[in-house]
Sequence to fold (291 residues):
Amino acid sequence: MDDHEWVAERFERHRTHLRGVAYRMLGSLSEADDAVQEAWLRLSRSDASVVKNLGGWLTTMVARVCLDVLRSRKLWREEPLDQHMSEALMTPEVGGGPETEVLLADSVGLALLVVLDRLPPAERLAYVLHDMFNLPFEDIALIVERSPTAARQLASRARRRVQGAAAVPDVDLARQHEVAEAFLAASRDGDFDALLAVLDPDVVLRADATPGRPARKVIGAPAVARGALAYSARSRFAQLALVDGAVGVVVAPRGRLLVVLAFTFADGKIVAIDVVADPRAPARTRSGGAQ
Fold:
């Protein structure tokens, strides 16, 4: 076995772990794979024989790549909302497999990814590396170029944000889940009457402005239901998740969060739907209580 094969074999032992780190950092399987590939390129250009802790070295490399990606992301993508929605619902699932299924179905889940996507890059890195992968704050500090104490504070702030977003009374959450699940099932089945049954007659759907497309508002259960039915045959990527502390819907082909539907509930009905094309964008302040 030559040196290249030896290094490649050692790298493969860590690939699944590195992919898990990158996915939690970026919320995208494709970007996670790119980050892992970049770590491999950096390793192949280095002298691996002098690296005492290859797993730790590779984790640090992947984390730095992910941090650069998070810092460079724009607040809004340049495509209009409709394009995001159609891509999210029409794109076939490619490149799946046992490893991908485990990654998407593990304890992180889409709900937590929605919350993580709203954390500042350094906070997200500190939380993911420490709370999910037990990396010492001394190592995290080197990546974010801060003191270990500052790194600890970053993780603490992120932890409070994550725990706060997940704090939903069980009785309310159960009822919200029933209504949201009925909405999603009716959308998939193309059942117009079932959609009307879970929508308030005066329901309002709001879509934030995106570059090249103004903000939009749709009022009334019939109009909102017709809009939902337009995607009834292509909604297999939609799943229920916690969004801003309430049950909503996320659309995530191949693990990539593209569209979030944030619901407002009242009296067992959906009274408002806020459509966010990019989960990293600030959430709209929603009116009405969750009941």
